[in-house]
Write a structure and sequence with these properties.
Elements (H helix, E strand, L loop, with lengths): L1 E6 L2 E6 L10 H16 L5 E6 L10 H4 L7 H7 L1 H10 L4 E5 L3 E2 L1 H8 L2 E5 L3 E3 L13 H9 L1 H10 L3 E2 H7 L4 E3 L4 H13 L3 H15 L3 H16 L2 H12 L11
Parallel strand pairs: 2-3, 3-4, 4-6, 5-7, 6-9
Antiparallel strand pairs: 1-2, 7-8
Helix pairs in contact: 1-4, 3-11, 4-5, 6-7
Length: 258
């Protein structure tokens, strides 16, 4: 599910579930956690690229896994999967680049935001996604998205459940660079190699400083997201949102705020 390639000090990790738009399941998240742990210890790795195979970066969490039967605790799931992965990406003292080669939504947006820089194709689009199935933002989206584009824009993207396209995302500061789709990975790798020639240890210390200055409450936010997702996941709105997703129709939410 996860492909790994090391070239000229740059490790490329590729999400490889193209038949499911590279959506995350427990196995893929576990492989990512292990890959980042190994990369942290590997002196040959100076920069990490995270991308998707085919035409998508990732659609986020694989809903079919969460709806596979039995009672699912969203709190438990987040604390075992996305929360440790986000923390690992932020703490690794090497630059991590999200190479967004196509649609990026939900938890995948959180993972991309946790990366240090975001590079995208001209055709990429990013979406918060959670509101479409009656859930709240998790995977640190509730923190990282407002940090990058402001609270008003972040809430707009969540409430409207609409994607933001690459050019707009670049203007807002959600993306750092846009490259043509035809040579996207070539340009991304060249960019990563240039970073790899820099003072990586200093970069790592600077990353610590940025984390302390801007994201010092990251773990608290992740825990709060998990608690709120547990509540949202047990409400009728979520059940209706998932049913509408599978039935390919617009959700019919009741006017009920109890």
């Amino acid at each position: 599910m996860l492909l790994s390639t090391l070239q000229a000090d740059v490790l490329t990790l590729t999400l490889n579930r193209p038949e499911r738009a590279n959506s995350f399941n427990v196995e893929l998240i576990s492989e990512l956690q292990e890959a980042f742990s190994q990369a942290e210890k590997d002196s040959q790795v100076r920069v990490i690229i995270l991308t998707g195979s085919g035409k998508a970066f990732s659609a986020g969490q694989d809903i079919s896994e969460m709806q596979g039967g039995g009672v699912i605790s969203y709190r438990t799931h987040l604390k075992k999967t996305y929360n440790p992965l986000v923390i690992k990406i932020r703490r690794i003292e090497k630059p991590v680049l999200a190479a967004i080669n196509g649609p990026c939504a939900g938890a995948a947006l959180g993972i991309a935001l946790a990366c240090d820089l975001r590079l995208a194709t001209e055709e990429a689009k990013l979406a918060v996604g959670f509101g479409g199935i009656g859930l709240v933002p998790d995977s640190a989206v509730s923190l990282l998205l407002p940090v990058l584009i402001g609270l008003g824009r972040a809430e707009q993207l969540y409430f409207n459940n609409a994607p933001v396209y690459a050019r707009q995302a670049l203007e807002w500061g959600l993306l750092n660079r846009i490259f043509p789709a035809a040579k996207f990975m070539d340009d991304t790798l060249a960019y990563a190699k240039e970073l790899a020639s820099g003072p990586i240890r200093a970069f790592g210390l600077a990353k610590q400083a940025f984390n302390r200055a801007v994201l010092s409450n990251l773990e608290d936010v992740l825990n709060t997201e998990a608690d709120l997702q547990e509540i949202a996941g047990n409400r009728p709105e979520h059940k209706e949102g998932v049913a509408a997703f599978w039935e390919k129709r617009k959700p019919k939410y009741k006017n009920d705020i109890r």
